[in-house]
Amino acid sequence: MALQRKAYDDFLKWKSAPDRRALLVTGARQVGKTYLIREFGRNEYEVFLEINFIETPKAREIFEGDLDADTLVANLTAFTKVPLVPGQTLVFFDEIQECPRARTAMKFLVEDGRFDYIESGSLLGVSYKEVPSYPVGYEQHLRMYPLTLREFFDAMGQNDQTLELVRERMRNREPIPTAIHERLLRAFSLYMVVGGMPAAVERFNETSDLSHVLAVQQDIVDLYRQDIAKYGDDRPHIKMIFDAKSARMERYASDFMWVADAGVGLTCYNVKAPELPLSLNTQHNLFKLFLCDVGLLSAQTSGDARFDLLQGNLAVSWGSMLENAIAQELTAHGFDLRYFDKAKYGEVDFVIEKGSKALPIEAKSGKDYEKHKALDNVMAVREWGIDSAIVFCRGNVREEGKVLYLPWYAVMFIEKERGPQKIDLAEFLG
Fold first, then answer.
1. What is the average per-residue pLDDT within 258-265?
2. Which residues is 362 bridged to in the sheet?
3. CATH code matching the domain that covers 6-143, chosen among 3.40.1280.10, 3.40.50.300, 1.10.10.60, 3.40.50.80
4. Cα separation of 348 and 293, whole Å?
5. How do residues 107-119 score in pLDDT, each as one tens digit?
6. Which residues, in sequence order, are bridge partners of residue 22?
7. pTM here?
């Protein structure tokens, strides 16, 4: 079964834009960029032309001479021997980081307007390859992530009507029917182990064998290590951060950021106070680093731990795993990751901007999820004006005072508001 990805809809929006530019699709390796672009090109265009600069390094010669559009198109057709149809052709340059002059050429190809262009590459390469002249104003950027929780549930065959029922129950602060709630908790536990890398999800769908999934995940981790060796060989602490995640941030801050820039890590910055605008309260020298995919994180744990996760036995010690899953989902939905931590108050896992207020979020793995001292402390500070909070937990939907308790899987329904509005948790849930 083909995976349904939201990014496909983003591609369609880009194609329908009257002033479309070249589309630069980035993301960590193995998140499904190339596969989805191929599917889009073959479905939506009469002619789809793909050039991979790693597989076909000689293709770089297309861009060695003049970069005017007529010369480039002539070189392109001569090299590929594929006739291009104006208005009905998509040209896909994969591994674009291996041909920096191709990115420079986008300005002239976009101005020409006869054909559409998509570029793709790993964030590692795109970020660390020098480009003679960036095509500012001629590229639209799209970041792809591993499968969201909703995409994962779709891949697992969860009924759309059931999920919409769940959304409506949460909007109305009504408990989810027990049978549905328990089923979705199990599905979420499976997500914690399988994660959102398309190859891992597809392998599980094919085999239902988690040992096969683990093999796929370990291959991806090895790819990341190879990229670290390729692009970060002069920065020895990067591998330590990736493997052990134990380096001191104060000493190796630039290496942490290198991992984040590669799309492998997700940064969550500390805020001095949970007040809007959070961007002005952000302390960029203090942050937590999450892995881009919780499945890859679980792959680096012991077999017993993975079994416990699969059974939904998220002990307090596995709170970091749950926190990673929540961070991954918030990022995919367009939220900047921030947290609050001060000795006087304690640590709140996440703080996001919703409307005109800051919304604190806690991710609780244990059964004592109603105990959240730090959250209570923060909400008690009147000048911060926090009148709502969310605790993601194993329990059902329940509202108590200012705190809304939601099951772990509820994070899939989070939606980012467009423009400043007064916070409304019902709207927050979609």
1. 70
2. 391
3. 3.40.50.300
4. 22
5. 999 999 999 999 9
6. 139
7. 0.86
